[in-house]
Each structure stands twice: as structure tokens, then as C-alpha cells.
Fold these 3 entries.
Entry 1:
Amino acid sequence: ALARLREAAATDRTDPRLQADVGYQTYLLGDVPRAIDHLALAARLAPSDAQVWGLHGALLLTAGRNAEAARALERALAIEPSESVLANLATLRYEQGDYTAAAALYRRAIARYPGNFQLHGNLGDALWAAPATRAAATPAFAEAARRAQAYVALNPDDAKALAALG
């Protein structure tokens, strides 16, 4: 299937969705640099597509190209905020040591998707990392555990959720 997608993408380099699809499939096969190239082209072809910019930013983040990732994620947020873009930018800010910005972004992501136990846990991590907000981390962790427990009750084979409970 990827070979056909690549063939189509090579034939029509003006279709942003096609370039984005090839980029995502290429990423799934582990070729992050090539995937980034396809998403960069898709973003140039569709400068107002928040989903393309968000995926491009996520791949740049995966590749450790943090400054470029921040620009792409911020562009996606300016077009249309989404939980995944907010969470990715929050993670980037956390990794940069800006725990206040990370916590604010995690809160915005939680407002869009309150049931995501991982977001609550990440908020707890960001709050815990800054001494001034450490006390606020306990309720965030408790909420993450409560939501993870509810999730595990429905999905008892999800190893990631079981680990989050720990």
C-alpha cells in the first residue's frame, strides 16, 4: 500500500492530503526523516490545515528538532487548537524546563479531552517539577489515577494504562 501511495505522491506533488498520508505511513514504518519531508511539503501545500501542521510538528518533536516542532505546533494551534497539539507542545515546553507553560497547555488539553488520564498525569508531572506548584500536583495525580482505573476497568489488557496506575 505504501508503494502505491508513494507512486501516487510522486505523480502528484500538489495534493497535500496525499503527501500527508505518505508521510504518516512512512513514519509508521520508522523512516522519520522521510516522513518529515512529506509532511513539510504537505504543510507548504496546505498552509491553513491545522491537522497537517500538527502532525508535522509531532514528527519534528519525535526527531528532536524542537525549535522547528514548536513553530509547527504553534502554527497548528493558531489555526485550530486540538488536544493532541496542545499535549505535544506542552511536552516540548516541559522538556525545555518551562513547567508553568507546560501545565497551562496540559490544562487546555484536558479542557478539550477531560477523560484522558495521561494528560492528568502529565499535568501532575509539570506541577510537581516546579516547587511553587508542587502542592497542586497531588490532585492532578489523584485524578489521573481515578481516570486510569476507570479506563483499565474497561480495557484490562492495556499495559500502558496499567503502568500509569503505578
Entry 2:
Amino acid sequence: MEPTGGKKVGFARVSTSDQNLDPQIARLRALGCDEIYTVKESGAKAHSETLEQCFSALQEGDMLIVTALDRLSRSQKQLGFIAERLKDAGIELHSDREKIDTSSAMGQMFYTIAGAFAQFERDLIRERTQAGLALARDQGRVGGRPPALDDDGIESVRQMLSGTTLSIKAIAAHHGIKPSTVYKYFPGGRAALSNSKKQEQTT
């Protein structure tokens, strides 16, 4: 590992709760890490939150150390974005198993390749988005999700709210939508609709 003037921060992860983090932690300690962030859950949310905490502890000139690249990232796509973010922040990366050390001239090649993959992924996303928008325009739509209810559906919900005692949940199920969608079209639900009718009758 090339010498670095900043601090060394470790990141360790296991995919299931019954796996042991100790070997990774011991290796990271041996590599000079005093501060280590760990994830012992398989969920993407836990991984993302801990990774953000780790990034918050890192500053330009510091080094992030992992025992292997698959401990840092859950996918090749994610690895590209992580590497690009580290490079932009001036943070070095060392992966013990792959012998990657971006503080060396040879290791900088990793950032170049990973950045190219991240850009490739962005280009694919942009291309798919543009193709979807073009198709939507061809079909007479302006893009985005289609409305949950058309005009007839809205009127049907209105009649069921005002003319039946069915619950919001039952009305939503009848139309294949969520109860929250009913409230989106009719804020306040049945009570608000009833009050509106009363006001119309008194004017």
C-alpha cells in the first residue's frame, strides 16, 4: 500500500446476519484502519446508509480500505458510481484482495475504468428514458405515469362516495387502486364531498 497523508477508514460487510465480520475487521486493523464502518444486513438500505456514514467521515487525501471490492459494492454498476464519487472527492481506495491501490500510478487506472463504466450506465439510462418519452409522444402521451383514474373512473368513485356506505378501502379495491389514490382525487374523502354538496345546496 502506498503511503498516504490522510487517515485510513475501513468498510466491512457481510450479506447475512449470521456471518462473521471479525476476519474483515482484523484485516482492516492490520492495514492501518482506526475507524471501521460495518454492515451486517443483506438489505440495500442498510448498506447504503452505512456507506453514506463512511463517506461523511472521509475527506480529501484520506483512504477508504476494503478487504475486497465485493464488500464495498453490491453490483458492478454501483461500484462504478462509488469509485467515481471517491475520485471526485480526492479520496483514495485500497482493496486488499484485488491489490488495487489508487494512490499509486497503476491504481489510478482502476478509477479510469470504473468511471467509464459509470458513464456507460448513465448513457444507457438516458437512452432508455429518451426512447420511453419518444414512444409516449407517439402514443399521444407526454410522458410520466398514466393517471390512475380516467374521467369515468373519477365519476364512479364520486358516486360511490356519495351514494353508498362502502369504506374507502372497498371503493379503492373496486377500482383497482389504493385508498391513498381515492384521497388524492377527493381530499378529505366522503366527509369533504358531503360538505361540498351541502354548500352547493345552500347557495
Entry 3:
Amino acid sequence: PIEAVKSESQSELLSQIRICSCARILIVDDNPFNTMALETILSSLDIKCESVYSGSDCIEKLLNRQKKTCGSLNCNQYPVIFIDQEMPEMNGIETVTEIKRLQSEGLVSDMKLIGCTAHKGEEETERFLASGLNQCVCKPVSIVMIKDILKEVL
């Protein structure tokens, strides 16, 4: 009986020490092609990611992940989120604003927010950046671009 308890506690300890296998990056984009392109790039870099269709789906995903981890002591929120600017329900600016509000209230942890936009105009990009992004890139994204971003933010 004592050995069974000892074995069970060792098993619990080992499960908590294990490396987190949860996705490291969340992609928020309503365009399947853009999502697939970014997922392919991240996969080629051996980075596990997840994607959602809208800003409201993103907020829901963040709140759920904050509450429910995989059980590893190393499990935490997505360190990086790629956010599209134009989406249904909540656009990129509204999504970033809501994430920042949740962070200020301690409901989600800090993360790097990277905007992805098809707008080439400086005014639109600056407006998106001003919402609280750490960085903003223009589509189409490339593997070199993503590698450079991840070097800076991870």
C-alpha cells in the first residue's frame, strides 16, 4: 500500500514535469488560404499552432486556455498570436483591444501580438499597430519574415 502511494505520487510529479505539448502559436484569420500558409510555415519550423476564424473565437480560446492547461507545469498561454486585420464579428483592432483589456484585468497572461494585414497603406498599418500590437506585417507572409519575427518575440 505504501509503495502504491509512493508510485502514484511519483507518477503525478512526472506528469507535471513533462514538457508542454500545447500549441505555441494561435492564428486568428478568416481566410483559409492565409491560415493554411501560416500553418505550413510554422510546421516547417517545427512549431505547433492552432487557428480560429474570428476575433471572438480568439477571445474564447484565450480564456479557455487560461483556465484549462494540459497539466504540465510548463503549460501557459500562447506566447504569440498572429491576428488578421479584417475579420467578421470582431476585426483585428477590436480583438487586440479586447486582449489588452483582459490582460490589464489579469484574465489572460501577456503574449506577443503580431498583426497581419493585406493593407499596404501606412495609415491603416499604423492604426492597427496603435491598437497594441507588438509588430505588424503585410501579407503575403514568407518563411524568412516569420523566422525574423519569431527570433524577436520568442
